[in-house]
Write a structure and sequence with these properties.
alpha+beta; four-stranded antiparallel β-sheet; DNA-binding
DNA sequence: CGACACACCTGGATGC
DNA sequence: TGCATCCAGGTGTGTC
């Protein structure tokens, strides 16, 4: 999936294309996503209009007068706006059709994504335990250090825990640890406050930088217009297992932490 | 409470 | 060509 930059890229791109249009039809071809799409979901949308598109972590929230549609893209989901209802591909699970004949179309081969309808003021249970936004001022070195010193996990596992901070997935966790010179397998409680300040600023930097490039496309992520993101070319470690460190040329190490691919330079990261 | 394995699902790459 | 195996951007749930 989509990590935070890809979700934000989707939000920015979709916003003007879905707002202030009347929804005339909703077609759900596959209800069995990560959680089944509830019966009645379509009825909440039909005749409705999106007024605003926001994001919490990796969840997109489509606001309307009657409530909000909450969407998660899972590992392989993407949303785009197409000009007509035709040309349906395999794994196009949801169509939201507007009165100008454009269609907001959800595509997701692995079906780890999800769609929910939220009543006004309802806070979904999946949003209740989320940590701060990584790009907000609430996420800083002091905050992360205070949590880290009480935990006994690898620092990479720490920053990928959405109850501590949202939006840092496997790609950007690898990148931010490289940029701040911290080995991903270091025990969270063994790292100084100063180094956490550096880590936090690199997390913010890499996420912002990727949003500006339209996110990272590895295989199937596409933006709202069907174009890939261009941040892949600027990755320092993720997916570069056989290659040398871009900084010192030493061969990168590849390992697994929490069963996720992990890349680092044993010279530049300590 | 924290740590961790496992679950959900398809498709692409790789190896025999 | 076919089949088995492994791996992939996430994260909630259950168990200890």
């Amino acid at each position: 999936m989509p990590e935070l930059p890809e979700v934000e890229t989707t939000r920015l791109g979709l916003s003007r294309l879905v707002k202030e249009k009347k929804i005339v039809e909703v077609i759900v071809r596959q209800r069995n996503l990560r959680w089944p799409i509830e019966n009645g979901f379509e009825d909440q949308l039909r005749g409705n209009t999106f007024t605003k598109l926001s994001r919490r972590g990796k969840y997109l929230l489509f606001h309307s007068k009657r409530g909000r549609m909450m969407v998660h893209l899972g590992m392989s989901g993407s949303l785009r706006v197409v000009s007509s209802r035709s040309n349906i591909r395999k794994h196009d699970h949801v169509d939201i059709c507007f009165d100008d004949s454009s269609v907001l179309r959800y595509h997701d081969p692995r079906r780890f994504g999800s769609f929910f309808w939220l009543a006004p003021k309802q806070i979904h249970r999946l949003l209740k335990n989320l940590g701060p936004e990584p790009l907000s001022k609430h996420f800083d070195g002091n905050y992360l250090y205070e949590i880290a010193k009480r935990r006994k996990v690898a620092v990479k596992t720490l920053i990928m825990n959405s109850s501590i901070v949202v939006g840092v997935g496997n790609i950007y966790a690898n990148e931010a640890l490289f940029l701040s010179g911290i080995r991903p397998d270091r025990l969270s409680s063994s790292i100084s406050k100063q180094r956490y300040k550096g880590l936090v600023s690199q997390i913010k930097r890499v996420l912002n930088s990727s949003i500006r490039s339209g996110g990272t496309t590895l295989r199937d992520f596409v933006r709202e217009d069907g174009q890939p993101g261009y941040f892949k070319q600027r990755l320092f470690v993720y997916g570069r297992g056989e290659l040398g460190c871009k900084n010192c040329k030493k061969l990168l190490q590849e390992t697994r932490i929490n069963n996720r691919s992990t890349f680092f330079c044993s010279r530049c990261q300590t």
